[in-house]
Amino acid sequence: MTNSMFDLISEQDEDRPYFATGGRGRTHAFYTGEEQFRLEMERVYGKKWLPVDHVSRFPEKGSYATLNIGSGSILLLNGDNGIQAYHNYCRHRGYKLVEEPAGKRQSIVCIYHCWVYDRNGKLKSLNGTYLDHFFAKEDNGLIPVRTEVRFGVVFVAFSDEAGDLDEALGEFGRFAEVYDLESLVCAQAKDYPVASNWKLVAHNVNESLHFPTAHKDLHKITDFDDAGTYELRGDIVGAWQVIRSKYNSVSMTGRSDRAPMPKVPPGDLHKINWITILPNLLFGFTADYVMMQWVWPESPGTCTVRHFWLFHPSETAKPDFSHEAVFALWDKANYEDWELCERTHRGLSNPMWSPGQLSLDEEVVSQIDEWVARLTQPGQTAPEQTGAGVTGTGAARS
Ligand code: FES
Ligand SMILES: [Fe+2]
Fold this sequence. Notes:
25% of the residues lie in helices and 28% in strands. It is built from 12 helices and 19 strands.
């Protein structure tokens, strides 16, 4: 591709080791083990900045969203000082306060014994427990979780050692700015429970090698064979893929009257830029919309995916705006993907699983595993890379 805004960062160093050897998958324990899961909760999800939502989902004071992480849950609330995350449980006896994925409330009422919190997380009444006379309400508000917003994405961190968020985001801002991420509007969000390890979902959404076998609609519109991997600075990974020339939108119809986003350069009008903020937030940046999808682990063998469909406000404001064809494509593709992930998880659950060779089109799979392994298994060496069977069928065509 030429004229891409991202040419500079898409130039690939073909001398780097992956091009000589490819990569290998990892072990049964890495994908399915309880101990690996515990380490990931402690060292990845417990320590890093984690992308959780988009600002457009909190349009008014009192707008909220929830998500479950491992055995915990957080509540994001748009209060008087902006969006703030809290642990989603009542300070009285631990009742999980909000189960709904999103909505709007000015007070959070615990329906166990009726403690009531305001939209800033403050405990404002103790109805029913008659504790007011000897109890300091100001010490018993919801417990806040560190919260930051960058490029319209809300991030949380459970640790004071989470590091510098801007440094972790590296070159992500270049994509976010070109696609106006901060101003986009979320037309819809949908949750999907998946019975597989979260890393298998992260792998799946980051490679297009399976498009011809799994997604006939996507394969018709995008070319899995005209694709490549970016080398990006920061805790991010990415790849690009070409949209076939007779189409202009990645949707069920392949066509859209939506104007391309104003800052997208000509070389990216027929391209999807797949960018993942590690560990778990995938973006598919296209000229007429952005898909955003996170995966949150709940146990070694279960996770939830939340898919967000984001459009430019100049399009969502039009009376005839419809995201139906885009939603239909991804909703179908998502179910196709979860079946692949769940069945892969069932295969890998065999303790006799022995890791196989990854192709050059699966470099991001290897990068994700390596990043997680670096944080959870310091001191252990990377899996042996042999290069056997690598045919060079893929990345870096331009
Ligand atoms: S657990 Fe919430 S009021 Fe008792
Ligand atoms: Fe897929």
